[in-house]
Specification:
Helices cover 46% and strands 19% of the residues. It has 782 residues and is an alpha/beta fold. It folds into five domains: 168 residues, Spore Coat Polysaccharide Biosynthesis Protein SpsA, Chain A (Alpha-Beta Complex); 130 residues, no CATH class; 205 residues, 3-Layer(bba) Sandwich (FAD/NAD(P)-binding domain); 118 residues, D-Amino Acid Oxidase, Chain A, domain 2 (2-Layer Sandwich); 57 residues, no CATH class. Helix 1 runs parallel beside helix 2 and helix 5 packs antiparallel against helix 11.
C-alpha cells in the first residue's frame, strides 16, 4: 500500500481555492495527488501546487467529465493499479482513502464507491439537502435496476477505479453523466462493485457545482435512453418466452407429460378429459404463480411503477419551491415510497444468492476449451468480471501455427486486453498494408491502411507461436484464471446447473465441473463436432499447404512488413515476412489438386512455387526451414454456435478463407463480445441459449463483409476492379476499411453506400467482360 506507483489520487477542481489546499495536504499522506484544474478563475491551481499536488490544466472550463477522462488517461499512462477520485469542495474526507483502497486490494479488480448515506435511513437527510437526496434516490433506483447491482449512493464522486476497468471501458460521456456511465459499464462488464461507508460531511453555506437544470437534465436524458432500451429488451424477451411456450419441442414435452398424467384414465373418456383439464389448469396456475413471485418479476413491477411515476415526480420537483413556501413537501415521501432501493436490492440479491450456491458446487465458473487468441482473450475478459476461469489447452506453447498477419482493428482489442505494450516491445514487423498481384492479368496494387480511423494505420506480422504465448501467459497471470496445459477435453455433459468435463492430462484422466463453457477450440470446433454440425461452405472446398523459409526479399519503406498475395492459375500464395528474417509462405488451392497426394506434399508444394513468378522472385532462393504442413477443407460453418450454458468464439463458429487475414481479429473480438454477454448471464443467473442470440447475430453479421470479399476474390470481374481501384464515391477508403477489419463491428451508412457502389462497378465490369468475350466465371472453379 505504501508504494507510490500502486495508485494515483485525483481531484478535479473548479474554483476551489478555499478548500483545495487542506484537501491536498491530507490526501498526500495516502499517496501521490494529481489535481486537474477545469479552468478555475481563482487561485485553485496555485494553491494545489503549493500544497504539494501535481497540477494539470484543461485550459478552460470543459466540465468534470473531461477532467476525469484526462485523469484516467494519465493514470493508465503511469500504469497505476487504481485511480482514486474525490471532490475538491470538502465534502469528502481524504482520511477515508485508505479504507477504500483496502477494499480494492482485498477484492482484486473491484470498483469501490464511497457511500455517503449509510443506507437509506432518515439520517441521510442531514448529509444532502432534501431536493438533492430525492434526485439521488430516483437516479440510484434506476441505476441499480439497469446495472443489476445494489448501490445506495450511485452519484458519489469518491471512488476507486481499477485500471483494468478503465482499460476495458473508456468513458464516452462528459459532465456529471460520466460517473453514472462508468457505474453501468462496470456492471455490464461484470466488474465487482463494492460500496464502502465514508465519513458524511455536509455544510449548508456551500453551493454545489451540480446544476440541477443542465446537469440534472443530462443525467436524466442519459438514464432515460437506457431505461427505454431496457424495457424494449424486456418486452422482446417476454415475447420470445411466450413464443417459446408453443415451440414444437416444448409442446411435445408437455404433451408427453400430460398423456402420462392422464394415462390411468384411458379406459374412462370422461375421467381422461377431466385429468387432462386438471393438468392444463395446474400447469397454467403454477406458471403464473412462479412468474409472479420470481425476483425478476418483482423487480419489473417495482421498475414499472417507478417508470410510470417519473412524470409525476418531475412535476413535484418543479413545484417544490412554491409548495415549500406553505410548508408542504410532497416530493420526499413520494420518492421514498416509489423509489425503494432497499426493496429493489432484494430482487437483485436473490438471484445472486442462488448463483453463489451453484458456484460452490462447481470447480470453476467458466471452462474455456482452447488457449489460442480467442480462448486466452475470453479468459482475460471473464476474469476481470470476477469469474473463476479454467483454460484447457491440449498443446504446450509455443507451437507452430499459421494466421500470422494481423489487422489494424486488432490493435484496440489488444489494448483493452492489456497486452498491446508487450506486443509492441517484442519487435514484431510492422504491417502497413497489403499487396495483391494477379499473374494472369499481370495486375498488382498496394493497399495502405489509412489514418484517421478508430484503429491505427498499422498492425504487425507475428509468429503465432510467440504471439499466442504472450496472450495465454497474460491470461494465466490474471486473478482467478487457472491454466490446464497440456490438457485435452475428451467429453462434456451439460445439465441444468452447468457442465461436467472429462479431461485427459499427464497425471491421468479426471473430471471437473463448471457452470459455463466457452468453445475456443478453433477449427477443431469441439462442440459442433460432438453435439452439433460442422457444415462445409459450398463452393469453397480448398486445401492450404504452408511452410516457413529463412530469408526472402524485403521491400523498402512502408512496404517492408506488408503481406503479399500472389494469385496464379492453380490458386494463390501468401508471403508474410517476419522481423527475424524468416518468411511464412502458404498456397491455397482446390482440394482435388492434392487428392491422392497426401504423402507426397513437398514436391507438389515446390512445383507450385515454381509456377508462381511473383512468389519465386520474392523468395529469391531462400531455403525452407520447416516441413510442409497441410490444412484441408477449412471452409465451414458450425451449428449451433450458442446453447444453454455455452458459446463458441473465433474459428469454432466459422472459417471461410485466410485471404484477408481476419482469423485472429475475429477470435479476439468475438471473445470480448461473448465475455460481456456471459458476465451479464452470471449477473442474472440465467444461461439459456436465447440470451446469447444477439451475440451470435452480431458475429455472423460481422463476418459477412469478409465473406463477400472472399467469394468475390475468385471472380475475375472483381479482381480486375480490385486491382485497379478508383477514388470514386469513397470506394478505395471503404475497401481499405474492410481490409483493416473496420467493417466487423459497425458499418456506417457511408461505408455501406461506398461498398454497394464498388460492387455495382464489379457487376458492370462483368457485363463488359461478357460482351468482350472475356471469362467471367471463377478461374479456380471453386
Amino acid at each position: 500500500m505504501n508504494r507510490v506507483s500502486e495508485h494515483l489520487i485525483v481531484i478535479p477542481v473548479f474554483n476551489e481555492a478555499a478548500t483545495i489546499g487542506d484537501i491536498v495536504e491530507r490526501a498526500r499522506l495516502h499517496g501521490p495527488v494529481l489535481v486537474v484544474d477545469d479552468g478555475s478563475t481563482d487561485r485553485s491551481a496555485a494553491v494545489a501546487a503549493g500544497a504539494g499536488a501535481e497540477v494539470l490544466s484543461l485550459g478552460g472550463r470543459r466540465g468534470k467529465g473531461a477532467a476525469l477522462r484526462r485523469a484516467f488517461a494519465e493514470g493508465l499512462q503511469r500504469r497505476v493499479e487504481w485511480v482514486v477520485t474525490l471532490d475538491g469542495d470538502g465534502q469528502h474526507d481524504p482520511d477515508d482513502v485508505p479504507r477504500l483502497l483496502k477494499a480494492a486490494v482485498e477484492e482484486p479488480g473491484a470498483f469501490v464507491i464511497g457511500g455517503r448515506l449509510g443506507g437509506l435511513a432518515d439520517g441521510s437527510a442531514r448529509v444532502l439537502p432534501a431536493g438533492r437526496l430525492a434526485a439521488l434516490r430516483v437516479a440510484g433506483f434506476f441505476i441499480d435496476w439497469l446495472g443489476g447491482v445494489p448501490v445506495t449512493d450511485t452519484q458519489s464522486g469518491f471512488r476507486v477505479y481499477p485500471a483494468r476497468l478503465l482499460t476495458a471501458a473508456t468513458p464516452r460521456h462528459g459532465g456529471f453523466v460520466l460517473e453514472s456511465e462508468m457505474l453501468l459499464r462496470a456492471a455490464a462488464l461484470g466488474c465487482r462493485i463494492l460500496e464502502v461507508p465514508i465519513t458524511p460531511i455536509h455544510f449548508e453555506d456551500r453551493r454545489s457545482r451540480f446544476r440541477p437544470g443542465r446537469d440534472g437534465l443530462a443525467v436524466g436524458a442519459f438514464l432515460a435512453g437506457r431505461i427505454v432500451t431496457r424495457w424494449a429488451r424486456e418486452g422482446t424477451a417476454g415475447a420470445l418466452y411466450l413464443i417459446g411456450i408453443f415451440s414444437p419441442a416444448r409442446l411435445r414435452a408437455r404433451h408427453r407429460e400430460m398423456y402420462a398424467f392422464a394415462a390411468p384414465h384411458r379406459s374412462n373418456p370422461p375421467g381422461w378429459a377431466l385429468a387432462v383439464g386438471a393438468f392444463i389448469a395446474d400447469r397454467a396456475i403454477r406458471s403464473v404463480e412462479d412468474g409472479w413471485r420470481s425476483p425478476h418479476a418483482r423487480g419489473l413491477r417495482l421498475a414499472g411503477l417507478a417508470t410510470a411515476a417519473t412524470p409525476l415526480m418531475l412535476a413535484l420537483a418543479l413545484s417544490r419551491s412554491a409548495l415549500a413556501a406553505f410548508g408542504v413537501d410532497w416530493l420526499t415521501p413520494a420518492v421514498r415510497r416509489l423509489y425503494r432501493q432497499e426493496e429493489l436490492a432484494g430482487t437483485i440479491e436473490a438471484p445472486a444468492r442462488r448463483a453463489a450456491a451453484a458456484a460452490r458446487r462447481a470447480d470453476y465458473d467458466v471452462l474455456v476449451v482452447g488457449g489460442g487468441p480467442g480462448g486466452s482473450s475470453a479468459a482475460t475478459f471473464l476474469s476481470r468480471g470476477g469469474l473463476r476461469v479454467a483454460v484447457a489447452e491440449r498443446e504446450a506453447f509455443p507451437r507452430f501455427h499459421v494466421g500470422e498477419s494481423l489487422l489494424p482493428a486488432n490493435m484496440p482489442v489488444l489494448g483493452r486486453l492489456g497486452v498491446l505494450e508487450e506486443v509492441k516491445a517484442r519487435g514484431f514487423l510492422v504491417k502497413s498494408g497489403a499487396y495483391f498481384h494477379d499473374q494472369d492479368m499481370d495486375l498488382g496494387y498496394q493497399f495502405f491502411f489509412r489514418e484517421g480511423k478508430p484503429w491505427p494505420s498499422y498492425t504487425y506480422e507475428v509468429q503465432r507461436g510467440e504471439f499466442d504465448k504472450i496472450l495465454l501467459d497474460h491470461a494465466a497471470r490474471q486473478p482467478n484464471v487457472t491454466l490446464l496445459q497440456p490438457a485435452a477435453v475428451e467429453r462434456v455433459a451439460f445439465d441444468d446447473e452447468g457442465v461436467t468435463v472429462s479431461l485427459s492430462e499427464a497425471a491421468g484422466p479426471r473430471e471437473i465441473r463448471a457452470r459455463f463453457l466457452v468453445d475456443a477450440s478453433g477449427r477443431d470446433a469441439f462442440i459442433a463436432s460432438r453435439h452439433g454440425r460442422r457444415r462445409p461452405i459450398e463452393g469453397l472446398g480448398k486445401v492450404a499447404l504452408f511452410a516457413h523459409f529463412r530469408g526472402g526479399r524485403r521491400w523498402p519503406g512502408k512496404e517492408a512488413g506488408n503481406i503479399r498475395i500472389f494469385s496464379f492459375e492453380p490458386g494463390w500464395f501468401w508471403y508474410i515476412p517476419f522481423a527475424n528474417g524468416t518468411s511464412s509462405v502458404g498456397c491455397v488451392l482446390h482440394a482435388r489438386t492434392v487428392r491422392g497426394r497426401e504423402g507426397d506434399l513437398e514436391p507438389l508444394y515446390e512445383s507450385l512455387i515454381a509456377r508462381c513468378r511473383g512468389l519465386t522472385e520474392a523468395l529469391d532462393g531462400a531455403p525452407r526451414i520447416t516441413a510442409v504442413h497441410r490444412a484441408a477443407n477449412f471452409s465451414y460453418r458450425t451449428d449451433p454456435a450458442i446453447g444453454d450454458r455455452f458459446v463458441c468464439v473465433g474459428d469454432a463458429i466459422a472459417f471461410v478463407d485466410p485471404i484477408f487475414s481476419s482469423g485472429v481479429y475475429i477470435a479476439t473480438q468475438s471473445a470480448e463480445l461473448s465475455s460481456a454477454e456471459i458476465l451479464k448471464a452470471f449477473r442474472d443467473n440465467r444461461f439459456e441459449a436465447r440470451r446469447f442470440r444477439g451475440y451470435e447475430r452480431r458475429i455472423r453479421k460481422g463476418m459477412k463483409p469478409f465473406q463477400r470479399f472472399i467469394r468475390s476474390f475468385y471472380d475475375p470481374s472483381f479482381i480486375e476492379m480490385f486491382l485497379k481501384p478508383r477514388e470514386f464515391a469513397g470506394m478505395v477508403d471503404s475497401v481499405t476499411g474492410v481490409l483493416a477489419g473496420g467493417a466487423f463491428l459497425r458499418r456506417s451508412l457511408r461505408l455501406r453506400i461506398s461498398l454497394e457502389v464498388f460492387f455495382t462497378v464489379v457487376r458492370i465490369n462483368r457485363w463488359v467482360r461478357r460482351r468482350r468475350g472475356l471469362p467471367t466465371e471463377s478461374r479456380f472453379e471453386w
